[in-house]
Amino acid sequence: MDGGRRKNPAQWRGHLDAILPPARKLTARGHHVAMAYRDVPAFIDQLDAAPGMAALCLKFLILTAARSGEAIAARWDEIDMEQRIWTVPGSRMKAGSEHRVPLSDGALEVLKVLEPLRQGEFVFHGRDATKPLSAGALEMLMRRLKVKSATTGGPTVHGFRSAFRDWAGDCTNFPREIAEAALAHRVGDAVESAPIAARMRSSAADP
After folding, report:
1. Which of 16, 37, 117, 171 is the most buried (most CB within 10 A)?
2. Confidence of residue 41 (pLDDT cuts 50, 70, 90)
3. Dist. CA 136–CA 23, nearest whole Å
């Protein structure tokens, strides 16, 4: 106590700020509204019916749980169709480490549609084949499909990663560490991460 007065244990300064991450980190996830994972299959059907490169890119992003910058800038030399692996270099990853993404049948189908149309290094190129899609192309597509409104908000592109995490937790038996590694989130130290990476490679080799 201080001068006969009790301090509020829930106050931020001098209490919670000493044991919790910065407030900006605590609220950051709330800025990315997620679509309920049960609604994602129907949305994939919408994307299949929508023309254009952005629809294919967004479908690929959802099926790989990738960030938009990772998917938009995907290059053909990162894709191993035979081994069903997409290797994203550390230079494009938020954590700065190379990320190996197992490719599902659906993700491979997207690539097989685009492979005959390949014009340059980028998988999802813009009107200029030497450049990737614009950064806002996926959000614009969401609004065109009336999934997201510029005025009322709604599910975001980044929110599909949260939908994936919810689905993995609710509908699969994979350990938390595997789900987090699939999202390229850091899990423990290098010793702890090694068996997780090995299990992910094994899953990719035996789809």
Report:
1. 37
2. very high
3. 27
Closest CA relative to residue 40, chosen from 24, 57, 19, 63 = 63
Rounded Cα distance between 65 and 168, Å, is 11
Residue at 61: amino acid letter: L
Give the domain CATH number at 120: 1.10.443.10
Between 37 and 203, name the one with better pLDDT.
Answer: 37
Query: Is there a domain that residue 14 lies in?
Result: no
Domain assignment of residue 174, given as a range = 34-205
Q: What are phi and psi of 103, to 5 degrees?
A: -100, 120
User: For the chain, what is the domain count?
Assistant: 1
Kindly state whether residue 151 falls inside one of the protein's structural domains.
yes
Shortest CA distance to 71 belongs to which of 57, 81, 55? 57
The mean pLDDT of 51-60, rounded to a whole number, is 97
In whole angstroms, how far apart are CA 154 and each of 36, 73, 139, 148?
Answer: 11, 25, 11, 5
42-62 burial string, b = 16+ CB within 10 Å, else e? ebeeebeeeeebbbbbbbbbb
